[in-house]
Amino acid sequence: MKAGIHPVYKTTKVTCACGETFEVQSNKDELHIEVCSKCHPFYSGKQNRSKHAGQVDKFNKKYGFDKKD
After folding, report:
1. Are 1 and 7 in contact (CB under 8 A)?
2. CATH code of domain 10-62
């Protein structure tokens, strides 16, 4: 690797919109993010599955599929 062309790698404070803060290694001084692992629906287990279930029922009704098949 060439000397003098790489950015400085340092500890960076990351702040999420939910208020969670943690530290990572990066070349930036500070990062602001919208979603972290604490508030993301997939990781927190608070997914809204009712919207998807309604779409499946609508599809089955539209094409005449019976749920007992």
Report:
1. no
2. 4.10.80.400
Q: How many C-beta atoms lie closer than 10 Å to residue 24's C-beta?
A: 10
pLDDT at 38 over 60: yes
Distances from the Cα of 4 to the Cα of 12, 29, 67, angstroms: 21, 19, 65
Neighbouring residues of 21: CB distance < 8 A, sequence distance ≥ 6: 13, 14, 15
The C-alpha atoms of residue 40 and residue 17 are separated, in whole angstroms, by 11
Contact 17, 35 (CB under 8 A): yes
Helix (H) or strand (E) holding 14, with range, is: strand 10-16
pTM of the model: 0.55
**The pair of three-digit structure tokens given for residue 18, joined into one six-digit string:** 């939910």
